[in-house]
Write a structure and sequence with these properties.
24% strand; alpha/beta; single chain; 11 strands; six-stranded mixed sheet; D-Maltodextrin-Binding Protein, domain 2; 257 residues; five-stranded mixed sheet
Length: 257
């Protein structure tokens, strides 16, 4: 029994030491969402925190072992951005703004087929424009974007009658449904578009990545994490959702490339 206890203590100490050797590299600003998420993680890991500020500077730290960072799925479309692996071996989890499609005119995507439709949505997003154009082609419809600066303005424009249909974040669903029906969402795979940021490991072993995932899973269930990231969904890789998470990343990268 004594040997078992000693072995457990030795294992726990070794695991803790490995995690403590982590470098947490913030690719974003020192006050944004990336900073908040990575600060939560580093408080648990007790590693070295690096405020890189952008992906180019962050990449200069990626020759080290046991890196935890965050990566926007918009960046692979920029050839000047460092390349990182985002797959089942490196992804720790995702922070996702899921999207919804709602309308006061239609109650399903089938009803939208072959129609002329105005959709209130973001006006300065090549990825959103690409997604809407693909939807237009798939539905054999003529879809025109009524452009807004953000989800709040988009919702106000829709409720004000500027468009009969809206594509926005799921955080606005309750407000939108005051005058319409939401019938498709990225959370269930109806829409192949969500705003995705990746919590990522670099140069870490399978065992270390597993420990990172456990840490983020525990953090994401805390009231502090949920209050800080209200409106997002945090998905942490496990044995049942790996394919879904990898596919979300691939789809987001493709839309942004």
């Amino acid at each position: 029994m004594k040997n078992i206890v000693l072995s457990f203590i030795l294992f726990f100490s070794t695991a803790t030491a490995s995690i403590a050797g982590t470098t947490v590299v913030n690719t974003g600003s020192d006050s944004g969402g990336f900073h908040a998420a990575l600060s939560f993680i580093n408080d648990r890991i007790q590693g070295e925190y690096v405020q890189a500020g952008n992906p180019m500077v962050a990449g200069s730290y990626f020759d080290k072992d046991n890196i935890v960072t965050m990566w926007s799925t918009e960046w692979p479309g920029n050839e000047e951005t460092p390349r990182v692996r985002m797959d089942e071996d490196t992804i720790i989890g995702l922070q996702v703004y899921e999207t919804v499609l709602c309308s006061r005119e239609f109650s399903s995507m089938d009803e939208m087929k072959g129609k002329n439709i105005k959709i209130a949505t973001w006006g300065d997003s090549p990825a959103v424009e690409k997604f809407i154009n693909q939807m237009s082609a798939d539905l054999d419809s003529e879809i025109t974007i009524v452009p807004y600066d953000g989800s709040g303005a988009t919702t106000r424009g829709y409720l004000g009658g500027d468009a009969d249909t809206i594509f926005t974040t799921a955080t606005k669903q309750k407000k939108v449904e005051a005058d319409g029906t939401c019938f498709a969402t990225s959370a269930t795979g109806d829409l192949d578009f969500a705003f995705v940021d990746v919590i990522l490991s670099v140069n870490a072993s399978t065992d270390i990545v597993s420990q990172y995932r456990h840490i983020v899973h525990d953090l994401s269930s805390t009231t502090e994490w949920q209050a800080s990231f209200e409106g997002t969904e945090t998905y942490v890789v496990n044995s049942e959702n790996t394919d879904m998470i990898v596919e979300k990343v691939k789809s987001a990268v493709e839309l942004n490339s």
